[in-house]
């Protein structure tokens, strides 16, 4: 009986305790050790990412976002996803409703919330993957090689991180992300599509 009660109490505490993979900052956004604290001058951030041999990744989040919670609790802590981020990406976090000034690639300086409107971001989290070189006069949204609006599972997120890091959008134009992801699902399941 004691064992049954102990098991029940442990299960209850495990379910009742919030799952937190990243701490919340003063701005209410999740903070991880792989996010970079920069001046949010995107051309400078891109240059720094390139110098490190990494890709610039912008993550737009907001306070109280349940989908951001999901990504930080369930997806980003996954060892494969975390490793892919740490090895390949220079991550800059932006706040959908933030007032911190950023400098876009087109030279415009504006608040994070104004940038979100300018770039047409409606959902959080939104991950914006940038190329190594941004065309002159382009905004971050125009230059993006991929944009992932919303929360997705570990497999989809890992596949997108891999697809961008390997520049598959350039090397195999016949296999867009959806086809690549479908192929990866089949390969992970050893050919079993059910």
What does this structure look like?
- The chain is α/β, with parallel strands linked by helices.
- It has a domain at 20-151: 3-Layer(aba) Sandwich (Glutaredoxin), CATH 3.40.30.
- The protein is 44% helix and 18% strand.
- Strands 3-5-4-8-9 form a five-stranded mixed β-sheet.
- Strand 1 (23-24) and strand 2 (30-31) form a beta hairpin.
- Helix 7 (154-165) crosses helix 9.
- The longest helix is centred in the first third of the chain and has 15 residues, at 2-16.
- Residues 1-20 have low confidence and may be disordered.
Summarize the entry for a quick read:
With 194 residues, the protein is an alpha/beta fold. Helix content is 44%, strand content 18%.
Topology:
Elements: H1 2-16, E1 23-24, E2 30-31, E3 35-36, H2 42-51, E4 55-61, H3 66-75, H4 79-88, E5 89-95, E6 101-103, E7 109-111, H5 112-119, E8 126-129, H6 140-143, E9 146-149, H7 154-165, H8 168-171, H9 177-188
Parallel strand pairs: 3-5, 4-5
Antiparallel strand pairs: 1-2, 4-8, 6-7, 8-9
Helix pairs in contact: 4-7, 7-9
Question: Would you tell me the overall average pLDDT?
Answer: 89
CATH topology (fold) name of the domain at 20-151: Glutaredoxin
Largest sheet, order of strands side by side?
3-5-4-8-9
CATH superfamily of the domain at 20-151: Glutaredoxin
The SS-based structural class is: alpha/beta
Main sheet: strands, sense, barrel: 5 strands, mixed
Ends apart, CA distance between termini: 41 Å
Which range does the strand content fall in? Answer: 15-25%
The total count of helices amounts to 9
Helix content: 40-55%
- Based on Cα principal axes, name the global outline: globular
| CATH architecture descriptor name of the domain at 20-151 | 3-Layer(aba) Sandwich
Kindly state the number of beta strands.
9
Q: In CATH, what is the class of the domain at 20-151?
A: Alpha Beta
Helix and strand pattern? HEEEHEHHEEEHEHEHHH
Radius of gyration: 19 Å
Q: What does the oligomeric state look like here?
A: single chain
Ranges with pLDDT <50 over ≥5 residues?
1-20
């Amino acid at each position: 009986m004691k064992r049954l009660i102990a098991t029940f109490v442990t299960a209850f505490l495990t379910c009742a305790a919030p799952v937190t993979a990243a701490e919340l900052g003063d701005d209410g956004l999740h903070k991880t050790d792989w996010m970079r604290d920069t001046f949010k001058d995107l051309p400078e951030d891109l240059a720094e990412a390139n110098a490190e041999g990494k890709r610039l990744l912008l993550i737009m989040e907001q306070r109280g976002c349940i989908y951001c919670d999901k990504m930080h609790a369930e997806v980003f802590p996954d060892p494969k996803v975390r490793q892919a981020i740490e090895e390949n990406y220079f991550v800059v976090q932006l706040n959908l409703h933030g007032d911190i000034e950023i400098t876009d690639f087109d030279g415009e300086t504006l608040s994070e919330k104004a940038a979100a409107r300018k770039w047409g971001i409606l959902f959080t989290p939104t991950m914006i993957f940038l190329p190594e070189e941004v065309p002159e006069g382009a905004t971050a949204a125009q230059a993006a090689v991929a944009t992932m609006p919303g929360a997705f599972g570990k497999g989809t997120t890992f596949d997108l991180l891999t697809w961008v890091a390997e520049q598959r959008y350039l090397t195999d134009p016949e296999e867009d992300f959806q086809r690549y992801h479908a192929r990866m699902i089949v390969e992970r399941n050893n050919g079993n599509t059910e």
